[in-house]
């Protein structure tokens, strides 16, 4: 079962989006572009460097 199938199954099981965070993403797959991934990686690296 791949991630798309798992998300579909979770949407079926949690129709009211009661699991923490589900109300935000609603079990939808929204892939990031390569530029978005690179931006996130730069951000997370900077966040890890802060004391």
What are the main properties of this structure?
51 residues, mainly alpha, 3 helices, 61% helix
Concise summary:
The chain is an all-alpha fold.
Helix content: 55-70%
Q: Which structural class matches the secondary elements?
A: mainly alpha
Q: Give the C-alpha Rg.
A: 15 Å
Q: What number of domains?
A: 1
Largest sheet: none
The first-to-last residue Cα distance is 41 Å
Number of continuous helical runs: 3
Report the β-strand fraction as a percent range: under 5%
Number of E strands: 0
| Order of secondary-structure elements | HHH
State mean pLDDT (0 to 100 scale). Answer: 89
pLDDT < 50 runs, ≥5 residues: none
Write down the overall geometry.
elongated
Can you tell me about this structure?
- With 51 residues, the protein is mainly alpha-helical.
- It is elongated, with a radius of gyration of 15 Å.
- The model has no long low-confidence stretch (mean pLDDT 89).
- The protein has helices at residues 3-13, 22-25, 34-49.
- It has one domain (3-49).
- It contains three helices and no strands.
Please render the helix and strand layout as text.
Blueprint: H1 3-13, H2 22-25, H3 34-49
